[in-house]
Amino acid sequence: MRTALVIGTGLIGTSIALALTARGVTVHLQDRDHDQARTAASLGAGTVGPAPGAVDLAVVAVPPARIAEVLGDAQRRGLARGYLDVASVKGGPRRELADRGCDLRTYLGTHPMAGRERSGPTAATADLFEGRPWVLTPTPDTDTEVLNLALELIALCRAVPVVMEADAHDRAVALVSHTPQLLSSLVAARLADADDTAVRLCGQGIRDVTRIAASEPRMWIDILSANPGPVADVLTAVAGDLEETVRALRSLASADDAKRGEGAGGIEDVLRRGNSGRARIPGKHGQTPTAYATVAVLISDRPGELARIFADAGQAGVNIEDVRIEHATGQQAGHVQLMVEPQAADRLTEVLRGRGWAIRA
């Protein structure tokens, strides 16, 4: 691939363009918001303006509802040898393209499983897709050249290709992406009118649950409008679990010992099923999840503190597998949680204590 056209210079489109230009591909940028396209170009994502001829690959990075319109227009104008989209929903756009009589041989639906809470070109990064799954939904009609161009794009973005059927993809993302967004927003919405005293008690748990509730609503309306059925199916199942959990909690408040026992059993069931589901989420590098040990260290909010603790861990010969920071409300301090292999936890604790760090038991 030597030339590419990116249509749509939001977070995903601009990140793709940045990754391609960094690896020597000449990228042309197009967006109906000309100011946004110019912003992407100023960041080094490519050049604004038409290519002198057909490019190797056109990447359509617009909301799902606009895929068929934009991609169909690009095909009619002969802008590229191959075309793909990167929308988060695959079945609907493909059917609409077929209804419009578009050439499905030169088109491939794809979806990079990456994003951020922020949107727009200024949030884009060339490494957004590194190590992330990138779904391909080819059909028997998909031209081999287009599939190869898509695989080359994924390699240049350093993502991991995953082949799926379009409707199976839509059901999957309803479960692992779209429903979590709504549930996060529902929990965060409870905080909008909560007492200030309650909000000041927010700890890491609710920060984790509500992190993606900061996402742009308009973007999610576009996504959910293109995949409402599968999301509604998952939420229906969640609603059933919620009803059972509410009944179990009411039973726990009963004066009847038998009812309290039933309530405890109901709560334990949902918690254990949650344990089982959580354990299926792939761990580091997509491997089977590992139960890491956590070493929690008190850390002050000063420049260089994180670098110092990582350097001390390195001196101990311990690899930090993951890290989280739990901020202390109203204080210039917090706890950094260092996740390490269980057999390394005692050695890391001993070395860090010897270097003056306060370890939380």
UniProtKB/TrEMBL annotation:
PANTHER family: PREPHENATE DEHYDROGENASE, PREPHENATE DEHYDROGENASE [NADP(+)]. This is Prephenate dehydrogenase. Its EC number is 1.3.1.12. One of its GO terms (biological process) is tyrosine biosynthetic process. It comes from the Bacteria. Belongs to the prephenate/arogenate dehydrogenase family. Residues 2-283 form the Prephenate/arogenate dehydrogenase domain. Coiled coil: none annotated. Keywords: Amino-acid biosynthesis, Aromatic amino acid biosynthesis, NAD, Oxidoreductase, Tyrosine biosynthesis.
